[in-house]
Amino acid sequence: MKPKTALVTGASRGIGRAIAVQLALDGFRVAVHYHSNRSAAEETLGAVRGNEHVLLCANLTEPDGAGALAGAALKECNGRVDVLVHNAGVYLPTPLLENEDFKTWQRDVRTHMQLNFLAGADLAYLLAPAMAEAGWGRIIQIASRAGLRGEARFSGYSASKAAQINFTKSLAVELAPRGIGCFAIAPGWVATEMSAEALAREGNEIRAGIPAGRVAAPEEIAQLVSYLVTPAADYLTGNTIDINGASYLH
Questions:
Q1: For 73-108, how does the pLDDT look when each residue is reduced to its tens digit (9 = 90+)?
Q2: 5-243, what's its fold?
Q3: Active-site residue 34, yes or no?
Q4: DSSP class per residue in the chain
Q5: Where are the domains positioned within the chain?
C-alpha cells in the first residue's frame, strides 16, 4: 500500500520544516515546497525520514504560482495529494498613518492576500477534487492569532489570516460530505526566523503578555498537524485551533 502524500508550503524553515519532518515521521510522503532558498529546503529534505520525499519550487506570490505547484505535486504524487498544509506566508507592517507611500502600502497588503490567503485557496481548489474522489483528505491552513483579534500596524497580515480562517469554515461545510477535513491553526508567537527580530527586540514584553510565559516551538504546531491528519480529528472539521499559551481566549 502506497503511503499517503502531503504537500507543505513554505517548508524550507521554521513551522513548515517542523511540519514536514513530523508528517514524514507519521508515514507520509512529503512534497517540500520552497520559493527561493533551495539550500534551506534541501536541509528540510535531509531532515525528513525516508528517501521518497520531493522538493518543489514555486513562487506563490504570483497568481499562477499555485497552479504550477499543484501541477508539479500531482505529477510527483501519482495524481493525488492527500494532505495540503498551507504554511507559506509573509509578515510585513502595513500601517495606515506611518506609510507615506500609498503604492508601497497597496503592494504590501496585496502581497499578504496573495501569499497568505489566495495561494492556499487556489491550491485547495486544484487539489480537492482528487481528495473527494478518494473519499478522504485534509486541507490545513496555518493562520494566526492575528486573524482573530487584529494587530495594530499589521492590518494586511491580520486580514489575510482572517480570510484563511473564514475560508476554512466554508470549505469544511462544503467538503465534509466528501470526507475532507478542513482546519485552521491560529498560533500566537512562535520561535522562527520570521519572528526572531521582533523577539530579540521585544522578547520580554512579548513573553509578559503570554500567561504560559514563553513562545511556542515550531514542533508544537507540527504535533497539532500530526493529530489533525488522523481519523480521530474527523469530527473537528471546520474548527480553528488556537495555540497561543492563553494569550488570546474567545
A1: 999 999 999 999 999 999 999 999 987 799 999 999
A2: Rossmann fold (3.40.50)
A3: no
A4: -PPPEEEETT-SSHHHHHHHHHHHHTT-EEEEEESS-HHHHHHHHHHSSSS--EEEE--TTSTTHHHHHHHHHHHHTTT--SEEEE---------SSS---HHHHHHHHHHHIIIIIIHHHHHHHHHHHHHHHHT-EEEEEE--THHHH--TT-HHHHHHHHHHHHHHHHHHHHHGGGTEEEEEEEE--B-SHHHHHHHHHHHHHHHHT-TTSSPBPHHHHHHHHHHHTSGGGGGGTT-EEEESTTSS--
A5: 5-243
CA distances from 191 to 50, 93, 199 (A): 27, 19, 8
Q: How far apart are CA 127 and CA 123, in angstroms?
A: 6
Measuring CA to CA, which residue among 239, 214, 91, 89 is closest to residue 151?
91
CA distances from 230 to 76, 131, 136 (A): 23, 15, 11
d(CA 187, CA 16): 13
Give 193-243 pLDDT, tens digit per residue: 888 888 999 999 999 999 999 999 999 999 999 999 999 999 999 999 999
Q: What is the pLDDT of residue 1?
A: 59
List phi, psi (to 5°) of 196.
-60, -45
* Active-site residue (options: 34, 125, 157, 235): 157
Using alpha carbons, list the distances in angstroms from residue 4 to 112, 120, 228: 30, 20, 14
Region class of 244: left (phi > 0), else alpha (psi between -120 and 50), else beta: alpha
- Phi, psi values for residue 34, rounded to 5°: -145, 165
Backbone φ, ψ for residue 56 (5° rounding): -130, 125
